[in-house]
């Protein structure tokens, strides 16, 4: 137990220490009050110097602040002399421990750059250069007015010369874009070029940003724009086909993907309107190629006449009415085997019903004639292809039709009639939509274009509606007569215009020369030529046909009945023929010779007709090419007529 005297001493010592605490508080308060009064006195003394740095109608360029007893001087002096004067005036102030100069000089900035960055929900940082004519506070007022009240601005921009005209308008325009960007978004001005980068806060802001940047302030242009669309958790894309057109809804990751989607929908619509409701957003997995996904959806949509193809939850699904029965297994196979990486197979819910409208098209180009669409049966398909092939010399016929119910009555007859008219055009198309047939394209002759509507109406079956939209191809520049004559000579000089023995069919060697002649006919309206087909050489025999030998025995027997007996008897000296026998032999020989001449003449005429027909089909007018006299053995001939 402590002694009473010891306890008393401890209490006296503790009381003395406790008495010091109020004294310390009084001392600290007095020091703080004195420091505050000193700081206020120092700043008040410097205000006069600050005010003298203001131009006639502007803000002072000098800014003062305290760090302890150090006076910090900031700003941009117009020149080194003014800076030295201000520092000298500050140096004679009473109170500051030292003057810390952070005063720069106003320079000419080239290029003149200014930037505003959104650093927080209600905070913006400015950097770069501001025009020396615009004060710091005035620029902050412009920026906060464009962004919104309550915005904190941290301005580190330095005054400089070289700003573009209407800088304040451009700065306010850029600042107004910042609320649509997430923190980190940045808007910059480099001379008269504006740029914006960052991530949009939502879909509305993304669209608003792109719309606004399409109309920059007058005198300014938009440079690099790198605005990321917002990220969407429920990312989906739908392509819908209806009887009136195609609709696109959902999201695409970029503007390039939007254009690809529109191209796919336009091709599917075949001229029908496309309803574009797409929005740009992120959320498509990185493993999925947007173009490959759109290609898959386009191929799937081509298999439906109405319905939709949807990408949702990472999978593609198809539902609606198939274009024909075979489209259902094709759709299932497409989702099973044709998916790009990262895309899963969804459901296929398709049903087949008769097509409406029922469409078929025959399209002629310089390379081929393509038949596409639907036909009701194989017989209709055969009739269409046959009608085309019997009228064409060069172009192959590509059959890409599919079978489907719902065809209008007399479809085959209507298409046969359309095929006949199509082969008279240089290029064009026959398009059937239910009972409406449209003939369109170009012809080489103005008269043919004029007659096309009447010809179409005359050949269509009863109950069908026809429309002809045929135009005459614009003629090329005309050439003079001498150039045309030289062109004919050049076209035929090296051509091998020989027909196969016994045949009137043109070979590939004919086409370059005949096409060149047809091309000359278009630019030489006064050109007239006669073409002549040759006969076969005497004794020439065509290759034997692919028939059993028995099929040729009657012909061989006929040849062997040419009565060689008299000749054989004469050689053997057995007996001279009497007058009657000699007369019969002479008559038989004359008949055989006449028959051979008729056959040779008939073959030559067939060859001539084949040449004339080809040139007419290739573009020469009927008055420009005529049939010349039949020739003997040798190549075909082309002769210039006066």
CATH-scheme architecture of the largest domain: 2-Layer Sandwich
**Average of per-residue pLDDT values:** 83
- Tell me the CATH topology of the largest domain: 60s Ribosomal Protein L30, Chain: A
The count of DSSP E runs of length 2 or more, i.e. the number of strands, is 26
Q: Using the CA coordinates, give the radius of gyration.
A: 48 Å
Shape: elongated
Strand content: 25-35%
Distance linking N and C termini: 153 Å
CATH fourth-tier homologous superfamily of the largest domain: OmpA-like domain
Tally of structural domains: 5
Share of helix, binned: 25-40%
Largest sheet composition: 8 strands, mixed
Low-pLDDT segments: 27-35, 547-574
Q: Number of helix segments?
A: 16
**Structural class of the secondary elements?**
alpha/beta
Keywords: Membrane, Transmembrane, Transmembrane helix
Transmembrane segments: 14-33
Pfam families: BON
Biased composition (Low complexity): 627-642
Description:
Keywords: Membrane, Transmembrane, Transmembrane helix. This is Outer membrane protein OmpA-like peptidoglycan-associated protein. InterPro entries: BON_dom, OmpA-like_sf. Pfam families: BON (PF04972). With 642 residues, this protein is of the alpha/beta class. The protein has five domains: 58 residues, Histidine-containing Protein, Chain: A; 121 residues, hypothetical protein tt1634, CATH 3.40.1520; 117 residues, hypothetical protein tt1634, CATH 3.40.1520; 114 residues, hypothetical protein tt1634 (3-Layer(aba) Sandwich); 165 residues, 2-Layer Sandwich (60s Ribosomal Protein L30, Chain: A). Helix content is 39%, strand content 26%. The chain contains 16 helices and 26 strands. Helix 6 links the parallel strand 13 and strand 14. Helix 10 runs antiparallel to helix 11 and helix 12 runs antiparallel to helix 13. It starts with a helix and ends with a strand.
